[in-house]
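Minutes, project huddle
Topic: does the predicted pose make sense with zinc ion bound?
PN asked that the exact inputs be recorded in the minutes so nobody has to dig through chat later. Recorded below.
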Amino acid sequence: MAALTTTRRVAPPTARGGWWHQYVCPAHGTELLSVELLSGQFPAAGGPCQHGCRVDTPAVRGAWLVLSHQAWARRIRLLAHSGDAGSRAEAVALLGEYAEIYATLDDDHDGAQPWMLRGRLFQQALTEAIWATSIGHAAWTLAGSDDVTVALPLLDSLTEAVRQARGVLVEQGRFESNYVAWLDAAGATTSAAAARIRGLSTSDEWIGGELGIYQHIRAAILPDGWEWEGSTYYHGFCLRAYLLALRGVDPPDIPADIVEQLKAMVAVLAGIAAPDGTLPALHDGPYARVPLAAEWLELIALAGQLFAPTGLEAASAHVLGQAGDNHDGLERLLGGWFAGPPLAGPRPARLFTDVGYAVVRAPGIHALLDFGPHGGSHGHHDKLALYLYGNDPWQPDPGQVPYGHREWRAHYRSAAAHPTFRVDGAEPAECAGELCEATETAVTAAVSGAYDNVQARRRVSAGASYLLDSLTVTADRVRTISLGIRPDVPLTVRVEGEMVRTDWAKSLTGWHIASVPAAPMVSAGPGPADDPQRIRNRVDWTAEAERVTYWSVYQAAGARPAVTAVRRDGAGLAIEFADGTVARC
Ligand SMILES: [Zn+2]
Ligand SMILES: [Zn+2]
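Predicted holo structure (tokens), as shared on screen:
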């Protein structure tokens, strides 16, 4: 844990924050590095990019201010949890400084974009709610400390600001928006903190009220446990808000249907997590990001106090590795979050029929097939994409860049960025697939709305030592039909007669055959969205046909019996093994 120093500190910046998604390099599409966040001043040379740029624009300055205010709020939380009086006094003093800053903001932020729900200290009310939740928890933890009443005007103003913002969303008919999870969390936290400081009881408005957390869970979470947008990031975003809002609640007091939904939300994460703990970055959300790792650690720590076990042990270890050496360890200070012991935990889930994801596991391979609804404004053109995880991120969902980079954002939501099919090189329509078959070892899904007069069907099944993928696309006439292979590891490709063999970082081998002549064109292209400059070999396997089936057999290194060859066998496929056996599919 980084040491908390109590030497003479610099003050938080007083300027309003902008939109953090603009903290991105215009040249490289990478998020700029979070530096000097507690220095009080934007880096003199500009925001640094990992590729050597220094970027200084009003938008980047505004984005840096968001990250800086959030870092200050986190620091106040850390200081508040510290046992020593000096740190707690510093936390109270910082809350007082923010109370002064906030008191000068008598109108909404005037720099917001038209679509934004406006905040005061930030362009967006959502950002303000996230910040307010940290401020509220710090004040809550400090209740009883000397002079903490200095925070009361700030807490009261924040409660009122988020109530107003929530009202605007409700008027717009957007109660299921992920914003509401945070507006409710901020309202719950700031109002409860103020009540504790005043020695009053807390109101139920933000938890059990008609626009509270429980109602939001009922509105925004699908029966299969997913937040309706189908984004791993926004799923965790909402779950963390709920867990933060429920501080001090005794688990048995939570309504039974809400317990089941929260449990299902945890089971989602446990189920999609690869054996090494990687959480696939489905739909919009960062591929990998240090501050996001800290958010997952907090979520896992709080979920582990509500349910035991959570099934998130591998994910916890994985994100701890991503959080890096400078991680402050805040999540380890959050013991006693609820008023009682945890409830029985969920079993990891593998099939999500509402959001449209299915996990298939073969030895050493964790595969995920994507067939659900588009997912609203955070959805991607990823219908029938097949993601492959294992010892390496063989074929991951590539995630998304900060939204301020328009061109790269468009790329990462396109079909071309995903391991799925395309017809005539065109972008598909927003559409939903359907689940045709699901067993313990196989799943089949189909889609007909992606392109006019085109049906596609993908089946993924686990064999004793391999994974078999077959994609059939049927069109109304001869068309150009491609299947994308999109690795985040060094990939080599070799044509061997009618078969194509792929090597994925020596840890996975693929054997590929198509039902009609098809060219496996290899080209260099952007890897996942954490750094679009990380160039990877990719394959566009393309046929001119009315109907084509693409078969791929994947085997992780060390799986036995070893696959030796794959060949056409009538209308199907024969897989030959080193022990002399043959599997016909
Ligand atoms: Zn750059
Ligand atoms: Zn995606």
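Observations noted during the meeting:
- The radius of gyration is 25 Å.
- Residues 58-81 form the longest helix (24 residues).
No decisions taken; revisit at the next huddle.
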